[in-house]
Amino acid sequence: MADDEQRPAALTGALRSLGHTVTSAMQRLGYATRFLLMLLRWSGQSFRRLHLTIREIYFSGFQSLLIIMVSGLFIGMVLGMQGYDTLQRYGSAEALGVLVALSLVRELGPVVAALLFASRAGSSITAEIGLMKTTEQLMAMDMMAVNPIARVVAPRFWGGVLSMPLLAALFSATGVFGGYLIGVVFIGVDNGAFWSQMQASVDFRYDVWSGIVKSFVFGIAVSLIAVFEGYDAVPTAEGVSSSIKSTVVKSALAILALDFILTSFMFREAG
Amino acid sequence: MPAENLVEIKDLDFAYEDRPILQGISLEIPRGKVVAMMGGSGCGKTTLLRLIGGQLRPSRGQILVDGQSVPALNAKELYALRRRMGMLFQFGALFTDISVFDNVAYQMREHTDLPEEMIRDMVLMKLNAVGLRGAHALMPSELSGGMARRVALARAIALDPMLIMYDEPFAGLDPISLGIIGQLIRQLNDALGATTIMVTHDIQESLHIVDYIYFMSGGKIVALGTPDEIRASTHPFVHQFVHAQADGPVPFHYPARPLAQEMLDRGTHGG
What CA dihedral angle connects A242, A244, A245 and A250, to 10 degrees? Predict the structure, then answer.
């Protein structure tokens, strides 16, 4: 008897949970949008006290410098080795500079720097805001007539947005230096050819500028995800830990998806 | 001439979604008095404080603070009102990234343009009032629980509020710290000419220091009176509370099916 009744029940159950997942995801997206609007609305007040944002640039930007530059150097050195190996088969080893610079400036710089930034700075922003919420500090601030979005969230958001393009640029620069180190200093590619080919082939408008735009967009995405996840964390140890995980996973997916979208637009423009 | 009561609540209902928390609460807090809201854990006492502070909105009823209807205020007016309120959170909610001194100075710096020397004098006076002037340079992580509570108290009275609200000021304190906090609550109220609402379940300490007590149970006010009236009360709930009996009108067991039936129905969890 139970079989006939249970099958439709299981089916409606599955449908219901699918529906629930979709509506709650939409609800959260709506909440995140409202959160962004609130953040923008209160940003003016936080800019009037610039030292708050500067402090966050120090914490999330400056303190990420080491990991960003070391990673940039190694990725540039690996690009130098791999690139040389392929290019010399076609007798065009002098183009190594172009290969290293273009891959870094267009793609690897913004994407890898943003991924590192999300795991280094994004996760710590989420943890900090989440713990402030758990220990009632945000609520205490609100009761003291100090808006936590203006005082805590907005400076961290703008600190991240402003740091990201600079970090990506430094990542690319150390990467190019890494490629130079391997290609020119160790392997012996012609120094003049390495730099002059790079200079001739890397276009500021299409290559450098598109990299800057990308890293700026990634900076907005990662910073928004980090502050939102922290602010929206369930105020328990478990809730904060799950928010930190969410920040890293969602940032990575957002960076890759946005990179695909931006690249397809930029290629169309360039072509 | 200002009204005699600083806080007036009439026919207040509040529910989280469809779970009712407070039902038909009416009470008055006269100016200059120390009033305790008492009741078991989860009876809606803290919710009541949040409603008075405007952090939650009632589903029905009126909340007047100094003649202003709290639910009707816009964000700006609410912040203006909150500057005249001080609140002590259950675990202090001190800002963990700044020192004791900066915690107490926080609101003075946020809301006034006073010169730093004057802020310094005021902060040291507030800390002196709670006996912790010597601890001004410490970080919150270096304080004991009782000291942290006293610093939070100094912070709550930083701007000489007209209304001070305490959420479980005695929770988790040793008997000495508990006595100190109790004395401070009374002294600061009288010295500042403020009005105090204290949410607590510590009946013995409260009977010493308060002017009036409201007893809450199941989201309703079940008894009220001066400490002497409460001591003499024959109301079953008050009697259970004052004499700390495990069972009485407040049941020991969370509502559940009979134990025997639960044991027989194996394989169904909860239900």
Answer: 120
Q: Does B85 touch chain A (CB under 8 A)?
A: yes
Nearest-angstrom CA–CA distance, B167 and B89 = 5
Encode A103-127: b = buried (16+ Cβ within 10 Å), e = exposed: bbbbbbbbbbbbbbbbbbbbbbbbb
Averaged pLDDT score across all residues of chain A: 91
Looking at the whole model, is its pTM more than 0.90? no
- Do residue A143 and residue B96 have CB atoms under 8 angstroms apart? no
Tally helices (H) and strands (E) across chain A. Answer: 12, 0
Could you give all domains of chain B from N- to C-terminal order, each with its CATH number?
5-264 (3.40.50.300)
pLDDT tens digits, one per residue of B138-179? 899 998 888 888 899 899 988 889 999 998 888 878 888 888
Contacts of A137 in chain B (CB under 8 A): 93-96
- Min Cα distance A22 → chain B (Å) is 21
Q: Report the gap between the CA of A56 and the closest CA in chain B (Å).
A: 13
For B263, other C-beta atoms within 10 Å of its C-beta total 8
CB of B96 within 8 Å of a chain A CB? The answer is yes
Residue of A133, A143, A146 for testing the chain B interface, max B β-carbons within 10 Å: A143
CA–CA dist A108, A169 (Å, integer): 11
Which of B79, B93, B94 is the closest to A145 by Cβ? B79
Give Cβ neighbours of residue B45 (< 8 Å, ≥ 6 apart): B37, B38, B39, B199, B216
Give alpha helix (H) positions in B112-248.
Answer: 116-129, 145-156, 175-192, 203-209, 227-232, 236-242
Q: Where are the domains of chain A?
A: 35-270
